[in-house]
Amino acid sequence: MASSFHCLIFDLDDTLYPFNTGIATACKKNIEDFLIEKCGFPKTQAPILRTELFKTYGSTLAGLRALGYDIKADDYHGFVHGRLPYDRIKQDFQLRRLLLSIPQRKIIFTNSDMIHATKALSRLGLEGCFEKIICFETMNPNLPKATRPNEFPILLKPSMDAMRIALDVADVDPRHTLFLDDNIRNIAAGKSLGLRTVLVGKTVKSKEADYVVESVHNLVQVIPEIWMNTADSDGDDEMMNRSRNEVDSIHMTAAAAVGA
Ligand SMILES: [Mg+2]
Questions:
Q1: Which InterPro entries match (predicted)?
Q2: Is residue 196 exposed (0-12), middle (13-18) or buried (19+ Cβ within 10 Å)?
Q3: How many angstroms is it from 91 CA to the middle of ligand 1?
Q4: Whether this model's pTM surpasses 0.85
Q5: Per DSSP, what are the bridge partners of residue 169?
Q6: Which of 50, 125, 174, 195 could be joined to 190 by an S-S link, Cβ 3.0–4.6 Å?
Q7: In this structure, are residues 257 and 20 in contact, taking their beta carbons and an 8 Å threshold?
């Protein structure tokens, strides 16, 4: 049987590196500092406001702009990401080998801006592993042209519009695309658009997840079919001619590549 996956779309933060690096916690703290220092909200309200804006608008920036605050995306990202402890993201040679052993197209799809995505991927040592990066700027190309804060509502995962832009830019057939993300809402949105979904960083599958992996490093064990022959994914005839041993050896090669 040939792999039914033609492309893998990976989230970045808390998917390609674990939540416990402390980056996510530092990011939340920076957002709260932004609300206090740049928007003048009281210290006590910042954590509640951050949570509420995230829940209602998808991000603090999206919420602030929707509410009429003229916050430039670059200024916000510069503040929130610029002071992150990037040194806590370590080179991951094992993940690099795993990604390079995957023969299909590989794309990053993150709500973060391009500067953060590039920096995080570089810290991980994953430069050159992905065909393209779909990020904040991809989903919000008109934002710099906005003449008022709420002219172009900010689009981010898990909004359907953001997901559709990503699928369009990636130029993929969702039925043959594996979508990996640590966020349950993003996974649900992906599933509703027909993607095959992998919930990352959890031990229990959410309703909309086809697979769950505690770490992205476990893909070989959990979804070995990624490494099945992809030369002619609809042509099962070709694979019918392949011996079972040959398919097994593909698995073993992939497993060996990641030291599994
Ligand atoms: Mg994430």
A1: HAD-like_sf (IPR036412), HAD-SF_hydro_IA (IPR006439), HAD_sf (IPR023214), Pyr-5-nucltdase (IPR010237)
A2: buried
A3: 18
A4: yes
A5: none
A6: 195
A7: no
